[in-house]
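PROTEIN SPECIFICATION:
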Amino acid sequence: MKSLLASKPVLWFLFLFNLAVAAAAPFVVDGTQGIMTAVGMGVVSLGAGVSLLRGRAADAA
């Protein structure tokens, strides 16, 4: 499972999908639930983005 989650296609999917949901959530879901959904999805998106950058830096070295 760990190797699947660390693959580049999966990381790109997690990054882009969660970023899109985080951007749309406050407009689709009202109130605190929309804000918390956006925050949670944003954190997952940032984590995937950091993993992509770390992989890129490791490939360059």
